[in-house]
Specification:
- The chain has 568 residues and is an alpha/beta fold.
- It contains 19 helices and 18 strands.
- Strand 1, helix 1 and strand 2 form a beta-alpha-beta unit.
- Helix 4 packs across helix 7.
- The protein is elongated, with a radius of gyration of 27 Å.
- The two termini are 53 Å apart.
């Protein structure tokens, strides 16, 4: 039995996440976690809300709440929606809790002791009317490169240039619209990543399991040359800057920058889990306390990769302490909405809470797995979604399960029939299922998300082809023993489908398992289909579940298309 630590990128606390956030981190992490648990491994799947930074402060102010109350409410909301999608976190933590603060302050101290943190003076934009320094994304103005009128302080979305906010022309505060701005000096702490460049490159070189997207992003930053990054900001909401258990002189009104403390929350959330359950967090994270035996897999969208292949490794490596680092980083591209971005303000795209109002979670889990933005950006369309639901879930899996169980209920009184012996058709089926099952298992292990869905569908198709060829409704008229063999084999195949489908569509898998009297959550089957398709004993009672997947109608698609199109 292996020990597998799984983390997915921390969703930001500000607002309900859209389907792209689900597809690019939390859902594939959950699919992988469920698969490895079924294999019998010890799995710890950790996630949390990322709660610090200016956006949380502003969102709380807009909601008329203090920031802690706002974060508490949003955390509960994101937790409940995630559970609604069947996300099987072992713990869903919060970066604003004391465990993360203590760890963040610890890392800052040891990094400074090792010569990797320095105090430096920055020139930052200060809003006199807002009475605060403005982080990069809270300043907008005219791009000095291309003249785009709405360039942000860190980047121009029109020409792609990276910018310094003090270079913007006619800058203004995004918070208030005030142009009463001035440049002031601010003393901040910097993580000196340039000193760790060689160590980080060597670390990345030793990670062949990283997805190609993750490796390409890591090497892009390394080849361009790392830069030192500020890790403190003039804000009130965040982890206080401490030294030796006391506020650091000159930093009493500053906090650690959210990008520094957020990845540390993977460890912090594990400590939260341990405090709540009596578990041992150190055996997952400290190599001197057992974590050397852990396989650590991260899931995230491509925008988070740089932080996890450069900045967080700089924190871990620079500490000089025996922390566990990631073994496999699985990165994803964007899921777009008809080629455009999801947008709350423009009402464009489906967000996670809305999705659950429209259809059960398995519809979304299947589509987002089968159309994962794994190797390129992917566009959601209602037409593709309807096709995946109707052709894959309803016509293939749902049709097979309901068809055979209804027939067997009518002809064999709701019990798995005895009699007869497997023949050539069954031998052919055993060979096909063994082959497809090996392929499916291999794709799950390789974390090839789209190929996993394709392999699972191919296994479902085999069952329908077997039923069509074996035709128990014809055999029952002339050879009841032959019909019994077919029905018995097909019901065993339905039970197998419950076991192998559970990582992706857990609710439907549970309904199938309950119908045939199998335990849930299931264990992963052996590679021998002859054994697996003979497990359920003759005489066992079964039931016919309600229709597993109802088809999505054209009028539903038309209504949803109009509702979620958003403003142009």
């Amino acid at each position: 039995m292996a020990r597998i630590l799984i983390t997915s990128a921390l969703p930001y606390i500000n607002g309900v996440k859209h389907l792209g956030n689900l597809a690019g981190s939390m859902l594939p992490a959950d699919v992988y976690a469920r698969f490895q648990r079924a294999r019998g491994h010890e799995v710890l799947y950790i996630c949390a809300t990322d709660e610090h930074g200016t956006p949380a402060e502003l969102a709380a102010a807009a909601a008329g709440q203090d920031v802690m109350t706002y974060c508490e409410e949003q955390h509960r909301l994101q937790h409940d929606i995630g559970r609604g999608f069947g996300l099987s976190w072992d713990w869903f933590g919060r970066s604003s809790l004391p465990q993360n603060a203590r760890l963040t302050q610890h890392f800052a101290e040891v990094l400074e002791d090792n010569g990797y943190i320095e105090e430096r003076t920055d020139k930052l934009v200060y809003s006199i009317d807002d009475k605060r320094f403005l982080p990069d994304r809270y300043i907008q103005g005219i791009c000095p490169i291309c003249g785009f009128p709405d360039a942000r302080g860190d980047q121009c979305d029109n020409c792609g240039s990276l910018l310094d906010p003090i270079d913007l022309k006619e800058p203004y505060s995004v918070i208030s619209g005030s142009r009463n701005l001035e440049v002031r000096d601010s003393r901040n702490l910097y993580l000196v990543q340039t000193k760790l460049q060689d160590a980080i490159r060597k670390w990345v070189d030793a990670k062949p399991e990283f997805s190609s997207l993750a490796r390409s992003i890591a090497y892009k930053h390394l080849d361009e040359g790392l830069i030192d990054r500020g890790i403190t900001r003039d804000l009130s909401w965040g982890v206080p800057v401490m030294r030796g258990g006391q506020p650091r002189t000159g930093f009493e009104d500053k906090v650690f920058y959210v990008w520094f403390d957020a990845p540390i929350e993977y460890i912090g959330a594990t400590e939260e889990w341990a405090d709540a359950t009596g578990g041992d967090w150190a055996r997952w994270w400290r190599e001197d306390q057992g974590a050397k035996d852990v396989r650590y897999v991260e899931f995230m969208g491509k925008d988070n990769v740089a932080f996890h292949t450069v900045s967080f490794p700089a924190t871990i490596l620079g500490s000089g302490e025996p922390w566990k680092s990631v073994d496999n980083l699985k990165a994803f591209n964007w899921l777009n909405w008809y080629g455009d971005k999801f947008s709350t303000s423009n009402g464009r795209g489906v967000f996670m809470d809305q999705a659950l109002e429209l259809l059960p979670s398995d519809y979304w889990r299947w589509y987002l797995t089968a159309n994962s933005p794994e190797h390129s950006d992917t566009a959601f369309t209602w037409e593709q979604f309807q096709g995946a639901a109707n052709k894959d879930l309803a016509d293939v899996l749902g049709n097979f399960v309901n068809r055979i169980l209804k027939f067997a209920e009518a002809r064999f009184e709701g019990k798995i029939p005895a009699g007869g012996e497997p023949g050539p058709l069954e031998d052919k089926l055993f060979a096909q299922v063994s082959e497809k099952l090996a392929e499916l298992t291999a794709q799950f292990e390789a974390i090839e998300i789209r190929k996993t869905a394709q392999a699972l569908r191919a296994l479902w198709v085999v069952g329908n082809e077997y039923l069509q060829e074996a035709a128990p409704w014809t055999a029952i008229k002339t050879d009841p023993d032959r019909a019994a063999v077919i029905v018995r084999t097909a019901i065993n195949l339905a039970a197998l489908y419950a076991r192998v489908s559970a990582p992706i569509i857990p609710d439907a898998a549970e309904k199938i398992a309950m119908a045939v009297g199998e335990p849930y959550p299931p264990t992963w089957p052996s590679p021998d289909a002859r054994i697996e398709l003979s497990r359920l004993e003759a005489g066992r009672a079964f039931s016919v579940p309600e229709v597993l997947f109802r088809k999505i109608e054209d009028d539903q698609v038309a209504a949803w298309t109009e509702r979620f199109a958003g403003k142009s």
